[in-house]
Each structure stands twice: as structure tokens, then as C-alpha cells.
Amino acid sequence: MLTGVNVVLLGGDARQLEVIRKLAELDAAVMVGGFDGLHSPLDGAVKAELNEELFEGADALILPAVGTDDEGIVTAVFSDRELRLTDEHIARLPKHCKVYTGMAKPYLKQLCAKHGIAVVELFERDDVAIYNSIPTAEGAIMMAIQNTDITIHGSTSLVLGLGRTGFTLARTLQGMGANVLVGVRREEHYARAEEMSFKPLYIRDLLHHAGNLDLLFNTIPTMIVTAQIIAKLPPRAVIIDLASKPGGTDFRFAEKRGIKAMLAPGLPGIVAPKTAGRIIADCMSRLIMEDLRLRGDEQ
């Protein structure tokens, strides 16, 4: 239980509703900002104005999937007001408080480091990333179905990257009957792909395999689907880039070439916000309880 724990939650999307619900069930005291446009009740949480006093006494500060942008703006889909996290806000946090977010940009990291506040990036954790890979794969395949006139079954589909998302996506495509190629850089990933009955290729050889693809899914957050690669793709090919912005695809050249190319980061929160919210809520509540236990042991 989180009885006696004070949580401040700022902004976010439908995923945060599940986080609020979970924390309230565990008896935490939850103050939320950036939900003034939400007309349905937030059971167990209290709406609050964003001011410096809000941060005093907080044991945990919870921010959205991307904590802030480079100017400190916090995304808040349930509010028309600008939500900006400032130096004055972080300065009011107790030193034991931790900031929880999916991923932190330099602005947030530097602000918290200045005041000695720990930042926990949930999307860097294997458990969260693996669970999130499920709705990501489903969302990517949904986009592929919507933007092609062929079935996944029998398609030639290339997945670039055999990380946590790439692995789940390749396995799901294979289960649907696709002819799955996997682009990798490391020898152990090549061996794993072959063991899983995928058709592995080294990314350095990608140019030689681009000519017969129906679907290209990229999970690598560096420029990898270059103009040279796109020039080799057949006109029917569709590119779905799952990497964080700006992705790993030359979208300008793809448009010029007439190839469908879509950047689709953050799919869990789009296609399955309830599931994605539960994943975040379960992990975060465990971490807060563990932190509470450790603090109790030290006293």
C-alpha cells in the first residue's frame, strides 16, 4: 500500500488515467495538474493548479511518456492551458522525491540534476519496454493493414532492429504468415534471428535486399532508411517507422519517390491506452513501494 505517500501527477494522456486509478487504489494521496478539461471524475485524485506550493511535500512527481519538451512544456491532452515545469517547481521538491517519466529530455535531466532530484525513465526498463512492445507491434500491423492492399500473410516484411520492439514485431508478423526478414548489426542478433526462423541480414547489406519488400518496419532511432535504400524499394512498399522522433527514415525522399512512409512513435498510448497505462501504473507503483521500503530501512 501507498498510504501516506504524496504523489503529484502532471499532464499526459489517457494512460495517466490508469496511473491515477492504480495509485488511488493503493491509497496514495494524488494531486493532478493539467486535467481541467476532463469532465469525468478522477476518483481518488484532487485537481490542483500548477504552482510552486504543489510540489512541497511530494514523494513522487509523475510526468507523461515524454517528460517535457526542450522548453519545459509538459504535454496535457486534457487541458488547453500551457503546462510548463520550471526551475522553481523542481526546487520545491523534497530531496527524497523522485521524478518518474517514460523518457527524459536534456531539459528535465539538467533541471533535476541541478537540484539533486533523481529521474526514473520507465521506458529504459526492460520490463516496461517488453510489455509495451505488444501494443506497439499490434499498432504497427494495424497501420500496415490500413495502408496496403495485400494481406500480411504471404507478404515480404523487413524489421530493422532486433531489440525489444523488433523482436515482438517480427515474431507477430511471422505468426501471421509473413515472410519475415530481420536487419541486424550484431552477430549474436543474426544468430538469434536465424534460430527463430526469421531470415536475417546485416544492415550493411540492406541495399541488396530492398528491391522485393512489401513492408519495412524500422525500430532503430538513427537515419537508416536512406534515400539510397528508398530508391531501391518497389512502388508498392510501405515504410512504418516506430523509432522516436525524428525517426530513422528519409521521409522527404520517400514522399518525392511516391513511397508511403509513416512515423509512428508512441503507438501503445494511441492504440491501447488502457493497457499501456496499466503497464506504466504497475511498474511505477512497485518502484514507489520499493523506494518507500528502502527509505524505511534507512531510518
Features:
6-stranded parallel β-sheet, elongated
Description:
It is a single chain. With 299 residues, this protein is α/β, with parallel strands linked by helices. The protein has ten helices and twelve strands. It has a six-stranded parallel beta sheet, sandwiched between helices. A six-stranded parallel beta sheet has the order 9-8-7-10-11-12. Helix 1 (14-25) packs across helix 10. The longest helix is centred in the C-terminal third of the chain and has 26 residues, at 273-298. The mean pLDDT is 93.
Quaternary state, please? single chain
Q: Percent of residues in helical segments?
A: 25-40%
Portion of residues in beta strands equals 15-25%
| Span between termini | 19 Å
* Strand arrangement, major sheet: 3-2-1-4-5-6
* Average pLDDT level: 93
Q: Please count the beta strands (DSSP E, at least 2 residues each).
A: 12
Task: Map the helices and strands.
Blueprint: E1 6-10, H1 14-25, E2 29-33, E3 45-47, E4 60-62, H2 87-91, E5 98-101, H3 106-114, E6 118-121, H4 126-146, E7 156-160, H5 164-175, E8 179-184, H6 187-195, E9 199-202, E10 215-218, H7 227-232, E11 238-241, H8 251-257, E12 260-263, H9 267-271, H10 273-298
Helix pairs in contact: 1-10, 4-5, 4-10
Can you summarize this structure?
This protein has 299 residues and is an alpha/beta fold. It is 37% helix and 17% strand. It has helices spanning 14-25, 87-91, 106-114, 126-146, 164-175, 187-195, 227-232, 251-257, 267-271, 273-298, and strands spanning 6-10, 29-33, 45-47, 60-62, 98-101, 118-121, 156-160, 179-184, 199-202, 215-218, 238-241, 260-263.
